[in-house]
UniProtKB/TrEMBL annotation:
Cofactor(s) of this protein: pyridoxal 5'-phosphate
Organism: Atribacter laminatus
Chemical reaction(s) catalysed: L-valine + 2-oxoglutarate = 3-methyl-2-oxobutanoate + L-glutamate; L-leucine + 2-oxoglutarate = 4-methyl-2-oxopentanoate + L-glutamate; L-isoleucine + 2-oxoglutarate = (S)-3-methyl-2-oxopentanoate + L-glutamate
Matches recorded under InterPro entries: Aminotrans_IV (IPR001544), Aminotrans_IV_CS (IPR018300), Aminotransferase-like (IPR036038), B_amino_transI (IPR005785), BCAT-like_C (IPR043132), BCAT-like_N (IPR043131), BCAT_family (IPR033939), Class-IV_PLP-Dep_Aminotrnsfr (IPR050571)
GO cellular-component term (any): cytosol
CDD domains found in the cross-reference section: BCAT_beta_family (cd01557)
A biological-process GO annotation: L-leucine biosynthetic process
Family note: Belongs to the class-IV pyridoxal-phosphate-dependent aminotransferase family.
Protein name as catalogued: Branched-chain-amino-acid aminotransferase
Length: 308
């Protein structure tokens, strides 16, 4: 990765190379950490973070689920994120807040280990490539089942949950696909390894209900945009057959943004090209994140004070 200059660590800005941790850090062994993935975009009025407050809130929700107390307030982490972007002098970046159990006692019980908080930023282009955004990607239904709601809380963005994602992603790539789609314990579609999923059928948008997924902020954004465009949007059970028979399909995520899916398990989706609804949503989404849609301007948190 391309290194930048600094990282926010426990309330202080430190040199990038000094943001290190001990090998007996609890989270490294037992997955006891929560994190976020956020993007900052160049907009008409300067750089702005997309839905920063909502991401910070999800970080606190994840921590609450795993009973870890974040030693900073919502506002402190909000301000620290903006400060980290400014320190690194980037006008666009990906942002990674991370809160984890550090060095203390070994053993599964994390309660005696200190809680460490960090925020890093780096430059990151399209997650599945510009080509993926434009022409769509090929996905495969994974042989791995998504973390179940009573096993490891898919709604919490914990590092532990991402072993499930990493296994599915690696399998999909080894088999020549770009991304995995995981089914839940009951066999219904849940999500991608790092994205939520939508399908379009006869002009209606369908997306899996919130039980076995991370509640994506991009998912929420797309639902709101689609409703405002007067689409019918349904959060529901989706089966693999619904995927195969969809007119269109796409992934949503902070990293993936809105990425069309043009093939699943060797079956073309619709005519095998990104469809018109996906295109329409992509178009408005990219206008929104760049501050070109006044209606949604409140979703932007400016790095420097907004010029009036
Ligand atoms: C498993 C999983 N589902 C969904 C998402 C999409 O969430 P968001 O749109 O908030 O980035 C992500 C990305 O963070 C993810 O890792």
């Amino acid at each position: 990765m391309q290194e930048l200059s600094s990282i926010w660590l426990n309330g202080k800005i430190v040199d990038w190379k000094d943001a290190t941790t001990h090998v007996l850090t609890h989270a490294l062994h037992y997955g006891t950490s929560v994190f976020e993935g956020i993007r900052c975009y160049k907009t008409l009025q300067g750089s702005a973070v997309f839905r920063l407050g909502d991401h910070i809130q999800r970080l606190f929700d994840s921590a609450r689920i795993i009973k870890m107390c974040i030693p900073y307030s919502h506002d402190e982490l909000y301000q620290a994120t903006l400060q980290t972007i400014r320190e690194n002098q980037v006008d666009e970046c990906y942002i990674r807040p991370l809160v984890f159990r550090g060095y203390g006692e070994m053993g599964v019980d994390p309660t005696s280990c200190e809680v460490i908080s960090a925020i890093a930023v780096w430059r990151w282009g399209a997650y599945m490539g510009e080509k993926g955004l434009k022409h769509g990607i090929r996905a495969k239904i994974s042989s791995y089942t998504r973390n179940s709601m009573n096993a490891s809380s898919p709604r919490a963005k914990t590092s532990a949950n991402y072993l499930n994602s990493a296994l599915a992603k690696t399998e999909a790539k080894e088999l020549g696909y770009d991304e995995a789609i995981l089914l839940d314990m009951q066999g219904f579609v849940s999500e991608g390894s790092g994205e939520n999923i939508f399908i379009v059928k006869n002009g209606v948008l369908y997306t899996p209900h919130p039980y076995s997924i991370l509640l994506g902020i991009t998912r929420d954004t797309v639902i709101r945009l689609a409703l405002d465009l007067e689409f019918d949007v349904r959060e529901t059970h989706c089966t693999r057959d619904d995927l195969y028979l969809a007119d269109e399909a796409f992934f949503t995520g902070t990293a993936a943004e809105i990425t069309p899916i043009v093939e699943i398990d060797g079956r073309p989706i619709g005519d095998g090209k990104p469809g018109p609804v996906t295109r329409q949503l992509q178009e408005i989404f990219f206008r929104v994140i760049r501050g070109e849609e006044e209606t949604y301007i409140d979703w932007l948190d400016y790095v420097e004070k907004r010029k009036e």
